[in-house]
Write a structure and sequence with these properties.
Layout lengths: L12 E4 L2 E4 H23 L6 H24 L2 H4 L18 H19 L3 H19 L1 H6 L13 E3 L8 E3 L2 H23 L5 H20 L6 E2 L2 E2 H23 L9 H30 L40
Function: Catalyzes the transfer of the diacylglyceryl group from phosphatidylglycerol to the sulfhydryl group of the N-terminal cysteine of a prolipoprotein, the first step in the formation of mature lipoproteins.
Enzyme class: transferase
Protein name: Phosphatidylglycerol--prolipoprotein diacylglyceryl transferase
């Protein structure tokens, strides 16, 4: 008798009237929002403008979804194009099936388009969004839990995953590889954040670290899975992909650190222009306030300020005679002599 295990949901979809609410889709959507939200915080900390990450995500996310689905369909074509299968199912993305390798590759193309439109460097954007992508993957993997897919070998561990009888699967307890990968992705996000703060990674190296760290974990997790997959030289295709991409990411980190050390000082030129305008407006406002304050001080009674044209006391008027004198010092004219 098994005393502990992780239950699977009885269904991966809830119906709100005629509208189906699918757990897989919810996990993907929540992951995207988390990635954009956290990426925006990191972008602002690097000196970028608010909203830039979301604007570029408008390009990156659709490209990523298309690329992820294409990779899955191409590498598992037998599920859709073999005898007895319906090729229309290749478009049913809500039933699961997104390849992270295709999602990242095509998503990068979409991000490149968005970056060019905003006039910012793609490597800087990739560095800002990298931990958010890892967190999005961690959330998205729970979509596999809703669909009861991508589990590992049978096990009797306390955290075994209960799988019910269904198409192409047998009831039993299996390794929850979706959970292993979700936790690994959280660790990757924390690693990238720490390394970025510690070593001030720039020019795409934070993103490359995310890719390398993810591939390292995906390799051993993929090796545990039992779902149908193509094998090359005794290893699953995705294991080979993880190895190749890991080596490319590490090579990029090494070469980039030698050719372009340090971090970009400016990630979004438009943000600097806005800051300069804001500083100029503040300076003008400060000068205006100072001038107004000086004018107000001059108009105050008892301030010691003299109105324009005022003459000091005792000043002689034209002709040399003091104005308003007592007459004691005035000499009589000739007609006044006695």
């Amino acid at each position: 008798m098994d005393l502990a295990y992780i239950p699977s949901p009885s269904t991966g979809v809830l119906h709100l009237g005629p509208v189906p609410l699918r757990g897989y889709a919810f996990c993907i959507i929540i992951g995207v929002f988390v990635a954009v939200w956290y990426g925006n915080k990191r972008w602002l900390a690097r000196g970028g403008k608010a909203g830039t990450v979301a604007d570029i995500a408008v390009w990156a996310v659709p490209f990523g979804l298309i690329g992820g689905r294409l990779y899955h369909v191409i590498t598992d074509y037998q599920l859709y194009f073999s005898e007895g299968e319906d090729w229309v199912d290749a478009f049913k993305i809500w039933e699961g099936g997104l390849g992270i390798w295709g999602a990242i590759a095509f998503g990068a193309v979409g991000a490149w388009i968005g970056c060019r439109r905003r006039g910012i460097p793609l490597p800087a954007y990739a560095d800002a969004i990298a931990p958010g992508i890892a967190l999005a993957q961690a959330i998205g993997r729970w979509g596999n839990w809703f669909n009861q897919e991508l589990y590992g070998r049978p096990t009797d561990l306390p955290w075994a995953l209960e799988i019910s009888e269904g198409p192409n699967r047998e009831a039993g307890l299996y390794h929850p590889t979706f959970l292993y990968e979700s936790l690994w992705c959280v660790g990757v996000a924390l690693l990238v954040v720490w390394a970025d703060r510690r070593f001030r990674l720039g020019h795409g190296r934070a993103f490359a670290l995310y890719v390398a760290a993810y591939c390292a974990g995906r390799g051993w997790i993929e090796y545990m899975r039992v779902d149908e997959a193509h094998h090359v030289l005794g290893l699953r295709l995705n294991v080979w992909t993880a190895i190749v991409v890991f080596l490319l990411a590490v090579t990029y980190i090494v070469v980039s650190a030698r050719k372009r050390p340090g971090r970009e000082e400016v990630v979004e030129p438009a943000a600097l222009a806005d800051i300069a305008k804001a500083d100029a407006a503040k300076a003008d406002a400060a000068e205006t306030r100072a001038a107004d304050a000086a004018g107000a001080a001059g108009d105050m009674p008892g301030s010691g300020a003299k109105p324009a044209g005022a003459k000091p006391a005792g000043a002689k008027p034209a002709g040399g005679k003091p104005a308003g004198g007592s007459g004691a010092d005035v000499k009589p004219g000739p007609a006044e002599k006695r």
